[in-house]
Structure formats: structure tokens, C-alpha cells
């Protein structure tokens, strides 16, 4: 039996599946590319998904483990978003080793006013933070449709433990920011080169 293609051979089912997967992957990437410049709308949509997820948890009075795991994952994403890509505390250890070996010391962050300006580079970029948190929220929402994930727990303990963990990790992060003098946000007015201030 001949097909309409010029080769005379029917494509195998594996090739059909592969072609369909590639087509879906391309369409998914096009959707993500369209969403890239719309930062506010992206985060509002994620916040809406998060509200739907939390309403599902509160109204059904279940899936507290899923909610706790989701909150811990979002906390880890937030911490990666707030941290610099090149950790200055690790550079302190490297500088101490170089001083012992008699090597030259270079600092990744400006230490004086005359040093070159280096912008804050995040360990987790905003786009990846949004994409990961949105995916995690969708997965957590899907987990609430299965009774397998509805493990009975005493939820007040999870809430107290999460807020304790949040307070301790954020305190440590703020102390790190103060010690190494960096701010992970663009605060203030941005001036253009050559323009009036």
C-alpha cells in the first residue's frame, strides 16, 4: 500500500507520536514566548491559580500535606530568587584560601565607591521563578483531585512549622543581605545614560 508522500512508505506510529509531541512542544513554547513581556499579567494569573488552590484546600478541608509541600517549594523558589547567583559568602572562603596561598584577591561585588558597577544577578531569574511557581501550583491543584494525596494530618502543626521555617529562613536571608550589602530589587528611579536626571 502506497501513501501520498513521495517516498512510498507510511510513517511509523512512533514517528507520528514524535511529530505530534514536537508540534505540541512548539505550540507550548510559543504560548510562553507570548507571555514573556507581560510580567504583571503573568503574576496575576499565578496569584489567581493560587487563590483557587487555597479555596480548594479550605472548602474541602483536606489535602493539607499537598498544601504544605507546595508552600515549602514556593519558599525555596523565593529564597533562590532573593539570592545572588554568585554567593559572596563563598567568595569570602575563597579569598581566605587565596590569602593563605599568597594569591591575588578579587571581589565579585564592589567594595568601594570607585569600583565598577555590577548589577544584581539572581540565582533564579524572575521568568524561571514565575514558570516554576505556576507549574507547581497547577500540579498541586491536580493533586487535590485524587484521594491518594489526602493524608490525614493535624494541620495547625504544619501551619506553625511553616511560619517558623519562613521566619528563620527570611531572617537569615536578610542578615546575609545586610552583611554583604546587596538589595535584590530595583528601588528608586532609573536614570538613562546621557539624559537629564
TrEMBL record:
Where does the chain cross the membrane? Answer: 39-57, 63-82, 153-170
Q: Is the keyword Nuclease in the record?
A: no
Gene Ontology cellular component terms for the protein in this record: endoplasmic reticulum; Golgi membrane
Q: Where in the cell is it found?
A: Membrane
Any GO BP annotation: retrograde vesicle-mediated transport, Golgi to endoplasmic reticulum
User: Which protein is depicted?
Assistant: Protein RER1
Q: What is its main location?
A: membrane
Q: Explain the purpose of this protein.
A: Involved in the retrieval of endoplasmic reticulum membrane proteins from the early Golgi compartment.
User: What UniProt keywords are attached to this protein's entry?
Assistant: Membrane, Transmembrane, Transmembrane helix
Where on the tree of life does the source sit, at the highest rank?
A: Eukaryota
The record's listing under Pfam families reads: Rer1
What family classification does the UniProt entry report for this protein?
A: Belongs to the RER1 family.
Topology of this chain in the membrane? Multi-pass membrane protein
